[in-house]
Amino acid sequence: MSICLIDTSVFVNILDIPGKNQQKQQILDELEKKIGQDWQLLLPMATIIETGNHIAQCGDGRIRRTCAKKFIEQVRGAFDGVAPWSPTAFPTIEEIGTYLSEFPDYAMRGKNGSSGIGFGDFTIIKEWKKICKQNPLREILIWSLDGDLLGYHQPTSC
To answer: Residue 89's domain spans which residues?
Structure first.
């Protein structure tokens, strides 16, 4: 079974967040495909936090509340085991300490003209690396529309 970490850029399309949902149908089609192929879908803590921030920035209060309710339903579903994805563990204090010492180098590494890799994306990359190390023979990818996260893909070795 392949493993997929869902980035914020994908999750906001799944949830249909206004202004962040330009590729909604493409993402939903790909989600259906991944579910049909029995991918293990993971929702990183950074994705949950960043998505909540995007929802809070929606201008219209009614839309913001509707999106927040949909968000809560999907995140609770992940924690309760009824959503098609499950949450990753929040990093330990020790892991965060290591992340903090490594982060300045990533903040300087932006791809495709961006100014650098933010701490949220950095933690998703670290989670991907940890899962790759734990599962060396499995296909593992970060599913993202963000240029800084494209290419994080460990093909299957089987």
So the answer is: 3-154
